[in-house]
Automatic annotation (TrEMBL):
Its cofactor is [4Fe-4S] cluster; FMN. This is NADH-quinone oxidoreductase subunit F. Its EC number is 7.1.1.-. Gene3D superfamilies: 3.10.20.600, 6.10.250.1450, NADH-ubiquinone oxidoreductase 51kDa subunit (3.40.50.11540), NADH-ubiquinone oxidoreductase 51kDa subunit, iron-sulphur binding domain (1.20.1440.230). Belongs to the complex I 51 kDa subunit family. Pfam families: Complex1_51K (PF01512), NADH_4Fe-4S (PF10589). NDH-1 shuttles electrons from NADH, via FMN and iron-sulfur (Fe-S) centers, to quinones in the respiratory chain. The gene is nuoF.
Amino acid sequence: MKLTSFGPANTIARAAETHPLTWRLRDDGEPIWLDEYQAKDGYSAARKAFADMSQDDIVQTVKDSGLKGRGGAGFPTGVKWGLMPKDESMDIRYLLCNADEMEPNTWKDRMLMEQQPHLLIEGMLISARALKAYRGYIFLRGEYTTAAKHLNRAVQEAKAAGLLGKNILGSGFDFELFVHTGAGRYICGEETALINSLEGRRANPRSKPPFPAAVGVWGKPTCVNNVETLCNVPAIVGNGIDWYKALAMPGSEDHGTKLMGFSGKVKNPGLWELPFGITARELFEDYAGGMRDGFTLKCWQPGGAGTGFLLPEHLDAQMYAGGIGKVGTRMGTGLAMAVDDSVNMVSLLRNMEEFFSRESCGFCTPCRDGLPWSVKLLRAIETGNGQPGDIETLLGLVGFLGPGKTFCAHAPGAVEPLGSAIKYFRAEFEAGIKPVTPGSLTQVATPTMAGA
């Protein structure tokens, strides 16, 4: 897995002042254990937070920094922290790290956990102090066996050093941290489904409200944050708000840096820590090196399989939530995928929708029935057996499974790439529709909804 800096192809060395997430990384890719982490200023932010800052000060610092969730939704972290109850009598609180990284084409959290497990632990320690959480869980994708091994070792190192457990740093604050491996379900990326799974229940999303900040794990106040989000906390506490805000490029409404990447048939696929506001063209050309010889960029996704497709002319969009929003989709996880001109979009979408259909928890009807329906239609179109009206039916499903129409965000994310693919490459879908011949006309059932 490749990691470079702000400059193309490793021309500029990573530095603590510009690369809060990656400056400590070893060139050989080996994990950084406690002694090396502390030699590289590790846990200094935690010591500052415990010695010089009140719990409310930490929350306010994170809120004022503008840090947003890095799992894809982009909700302001400090605002989320502020939802936790102020009642001191509610002394049982939980901090959960969402490490169920199952978004196709996303692997950024894996790198952080495998190579810098103590950065995540320090981020959780500071966050737990701010939230008054006495216990934390890292809910880890079951397939991340190396990450689990490294995290468990790092937890034991931190315990032995008095950085986890009882009376941390002589403060009287207790915090226990556990690594919990899940059974491998995409839906566990939704925070309430994650909570259900952690409790040993079926991984279905819960109705909200109540939100986890009020009623979370085992009915207690709970905060759920993504791995990359928590890994930003030590640098914010250690270096301050002004420094953090200055990291982003001019014009970006999001602050700090982001782990971004490009995969597909590009010359230099990889993962880089870059400032918010860099253009997708810079990411694609300067870092990923453009397309391999013999291939042409057909379209691209900006942040995982659940984001809409964009065309080459959209590469000048800035990589932050608002910048990508201006061209019609979402920033998502920030790990882009290049689709080359040899790929048939119908086949690509059929493959994607099969994944999303399989990973549906099946709780709500639109998702449970709508996604398999889209797969059935796409399979027919892919084999040239599509019927007149099938494309209109697919577009109807895109509308009926969109935001606000289903119990959680799984289905809206699943159909966003489908809608954009039909928008930009409708001819490829039309090519799979059987021509109408005398006697072949059948009644076409198109989804309808009263008031839609």
